[in-house]
């Protein structure tokens, strides 16, 4: 895929592919299905994206961009670093209810793309590294003695909430994660 703006057909392909990849799984969706659902030829899909690998990467980057924008937008509305740490869990709960009923697209992608050389695997891993660094930065701003350790703990709580929500059907998983983060911050 190039960095040029997407044509209307390419936007439709990406929207359809994103929906299919998220709801049916990356491995369960072929280029023929994407083309048919988008109302274009398979040639159009390949002309614009080059490969399924590139289309998967575009899908994951799009989801990541939306999540980062959503989360940072929510954090801009909150005061100090401790409050922003807790607000990440509020935002996560809202995101899970509205955008991620099937769980985290990045975790799902990592499960389907175990080859670390796959660009999609790297995009998903980068997203997890970003959230960990966000926590580390907020922990440092809050004056925590070991911001890296707290960042690791918060990341584990965050990811655990995502899995509990989608796999164990715990609708309040993000709220429970927030309560756990409050305990860590009170130490």
UniProtKB/TrEMBL annotation:
Residue ranges the UniProt entry marks as DNA-binding? 30-49
Keyword Cell inner membrane recorded: no
Q: Which InterPro entries match?
A: Homeodomain-like_sf, HTH_TetR, Tet_transcr_reg_TetR-rel_C_sf, TetR_C
Q: Which UniProt keywords apply?
A: DNA-binding, Transcription, Transcription regulation
Annotated signal sequence is none
Q: Which residues form the HTH tetR-type domain?
A: 7-67
Show the stretches that span the lipid bilayer.
none
* MF terms in GO: DNA binding
Q: At the top level of its lineage, which domain of life is listed?
A: Bacteria
Q: Which SUPFAM superfamilies match?
A: Homeodomain-like, Tetracyclin repressor-like, C-terminal domain
The name this protein carries in UniProt is TetR/AcrR family transcriptional regulator
Q: Which organism is it from?
A: Actinomadura barringtoniae
